[in-house]
Amino acid sequence: MGLQISATGAPRHEGEAKKNAAEAVFSIRDLGKEFQVSARTLRFYEEKGLLNPQRDGQDRLYSRRDRVRLQYVLMGKCVGFSLDEIKDMLDFHDNGERQGTNLRAALGKFQERIGRLEQQKGAINRALAELDHARKRLESMIATRERKQA
């Protein structure tokens, strides 16, 4: 890795995010480190059409757009959307289809996911209540045995 001079004149290493006049460019290492994902994951997202880095020989150069898309992919995965659903929503946004049926479809997906998460939340709360009740019964049984042994 060589030392380069940034647009501001400050020295920097090649592995750091590179700046050009139009936009920031990030290496696969930069994004992997920032988002704590592997290079393999980034290449997989590229294969799925979620990211579209430019190529400089063997190097992949990710734009700000790719960085933002990666953020959305990871957030979407975190709340349970499939990669296909995430891709559809990103494509709706990229194609400028901000009105009509595509937005309604995206809204429907969000509402559906919220509903599923609310159901899961209810199931988790019920399970926690049952576990808490069982824990209290066990504590009571242990306390009774300890009193009898004393």
Description:
The protein has 150 residues and is an alpha+beta fold. It folds into 2 domains: 1-81, Multidrug-efflux Transporter Regulator, Chain: A, Domain 2; 97-150. The protein has 5 helices and 6 strands, in the order ββββααββααα. It has helices at residues 28-35, 39-47, 64-78, 83-94, 101-149, and strands at 3-5, 11-13, 18-19, 24-27, 54-56, 59-63. A 4-stranded antiparallel β-sheet has the order 3-4-6-5. Strand 3 (18-19) and strand 4 (24-27) form a beta hairpin. It is elongated, with a radius of gyration of 25 Å. The model is unreliable at 1-22 (pLDDT under 50).
The major pleated sheet works out as: 4 strands, antiparallel
Question: Which architecture of the largest domain does the CATH hierarchy give at level 2?
Answer: Orthogonal Bundle
Reading off the top of the CATH hierarchy, the class of the largest domain is best stated as Mainly Alpha
Straight-line N-to-C gap? 72 Å
Q: Decide which structural class fits the backbone.
A: alpha+beta
Strand line-up across the major sheet: 3-4-6-5
Overall shape: it is elongated
Q: Which assembly state applies to the chains in this document?
A: single chain
Low-confidence stretches: 1-22
Give Rg in angstroms. Answer: 25 Å
State the helix count. 5
